[in-house]
Design goal:
2 domains, metal-binding, heme binding, heme
């Protein structure tokens, strides 16, 4: 039979379909079999311990991230496999205290740093966003913003902040007197206070939460946006081609929320500064960042501190007596005076250890040529991260890590003499640590001291296990925390003060 007759007998349509099926089968074979085998048997990270399924594919990591229980699951893996584990084909997780310096510390100029994972910041303007900018640009942006968070600036801001703290306590006192048996949702009220404070500091006016006892619509959008962004980033790290599709599948309302979010910031900036013509992107990007970082995380810490105190009566009694022993009036509670409350500060640090407001990592990526980390060479383009929650709950770093013991920070209990306190970095580490650390501590100390001075607090029935099962999508998704408040009288304060 001639060659032409052979070719003539082949159906071109059938040939095309056969090629498509063969290509699809080859791609499937590579994705399902060959690539996972390479990741487990031949990848440069193959020597690091961890579950083989996590080493083979990023799908377990994606499931873990989307589950809302990611930090707890990673902690369980560390307890099984060690303090440096492989959690994805190209990603390592560290629980060694020196990892902070090795991964995120300052480096001499000219030495390439471990850059932030670009998949986390694809929606950011890298030239204008403090959180996402490359090293040199970050240094310039930080120098422009840092003066607003200096000790001198914090002193100047105290009257503004205290005005909202006063209003916060006044509104809670009114609610407690109007309905003594009714509970107050402290998750909401702490958010009202912290968002109003940061709104005034950033825009010259509050969000109106304390006055209206409702979340401003923009604030509600922020919480939805944070969760949505966590989901999209998780998909982008695993299957980049699907990230935009998942973003779209979340629906037009999600996109509209982001547009509303940024539009609100621009409108506020325009109102305060006049029409923004110089570097509008810089102002919008960083106002957005500072509002979220300067409000929700502080409210989270206060919510968990309240819960932990009310479930640990011994600690509550000691810290209450400390506050009432230090002050005879609300006016005496200031940014400076609360610094003398050593036990209350230990309460807040222990809260941040057990429930770090940002429990997840912000991974870095090793530079070209790789990098030595904790005494071992790590190949280039490797994601390296520290899960705050896992680091602080690791029994190799802290004794009795699941228990609430503020004494561990005071050096008065020998059980905690060997704790690795250098592992504790709730505001991150190095050149990119949190600019608002001093502001956050000042707010937390002052608000908590005022709560202890002004109210007798009790958990409402049914909230004794409030923290159990809380989901995490970048931040904690906190359900209502209902508290019964009874305003303290002068005689009660005097009685408690006498015990101190």
């Amino acid at each position: 039979m001639s060659k032409s007759l052979l070719l003539g007998s082949i159906d071109p349509t059938h040939l095309g379909l056969s090629l498509i099926v063969a290509a699809a089968a080859s791609a499937l074979l590579y994705v399902v079999v060959l690539r996972p085998l390479y990741n487990v048997l031949f990848h440069p990270l193959r020597k690091y311990p961890g579950p083989k399924l996590w080493a083979a594919s990023r799908l377990p990591y994606l499931r873990n991230w989307l589950s809302g229980r990611g930090p707890q699951e990673v902690l369980a893996l560390h307890r099984r496999y060690g303090d440096v584990i492989r959690v994805a084909p190209d990603e390592l997780s560290y629980l060694r205290p020196d990892a902070w310096k090795e991964i995120m510390g300052h480096l001499p100029r000219g030495v390439l740093e471990n850059e932030k994972d670009p998949t986390m910041f694809s929606g950011f303007n890298l030239l204008d966003s403090l959180i996402a900018a490359p090293r040199d640009e970050h240094g310039r942006l930080r120098s422009l913003l840092s003066h607003g968070f200096s000790a001198a600036r914090l002193r100047d801001q105290q009257p503004i902040i205290m005005r909202y703290v006063d209003l916060f306590v006044e509104r809670l006192r009114d609610k407690a007197r109007a309905d003594p048996a009714g509970g107050v949702n402290m998750v909401l009220w702490y958010n009202y206070a912290t968002f109003d404070i940061i709104g005034d500091l950033a825009f010259g006016e509050p969000f109106g939460g304390l006055e209206s006892a409702t979340l401003h619509p923009w604030v509600a959008v922020v919480f939805q946006w944070i969760k949505r962004n966590a989901q999209v980033v998780a998909v982008r790290r695993t299957i980049p081609a699907l990230a935009d599709l998942v973003d779209t599948m979340l629906g037009k309302p999600a996109t509209a929320q982001v547009q509303e979010h940024m539009g609100y910031i621009k409108a506020k900036l325009d109102k305060r500064l006049g029409t923004v013509t110089e570097r509008p992107d810089f102002l919008e990007e960083n106002a957005n960042l500072l509002i979220i970082a300067g409000s929700e995380t502080t409210a989270t810490a206060l919510s968990f501190a309240t819960y932990l105190l009310l479930t640990h009566p011994r600690v509550l009694q000691r810290v209450t007596e400390e506050v009432l022993g230090a002050f005879s009036s609300e006016a005496e509670i200031t940014f400076n005076s609360v610094q003398s409350l050593k036990y209350m500060i230990a309460v807040l640090d222990e809260t941040l250890r057990i429930f770090p407001p940002v429990p997840v990592p912000v991974p870095r990526v090793t530079p070209p040529g790789g990098r030595m980390i904790c005494g071992e060479f790590i190949p280039e383009k490797t994601r390296v991260g520290i899960w705050h929650y896992s680091m602080y709950h690791h029994p190799g770093n802290f004794a009795l890590p699941e228990e609430f013991h503020p004494e561990r920070w005071l050096g008065e209990d020998p059980r905690f003499a060997h704790d690795h306190k250098e592992a504790f970095e709730p505001f991150s580490y190095g050149a990119r640590n949190c600019l608002g650390r001093n502001l956050a501590y000042a707010e937390m100390r002052t608000i908590l001291a005022r709560m202890l001075f002004s109210f007798d607090m009790r958990l409402s029935p049914g909230y004794e296990r409030w923290a159990d099962g809380i989901k995490i999508h970048n931040l904690f998704e906190k359900p209502p925390l209902m508290i019964n408040l009874t305003p303290r009288g002068d005689q009660e304060r005097a009685n408690l003060r006498s015990r101190h």
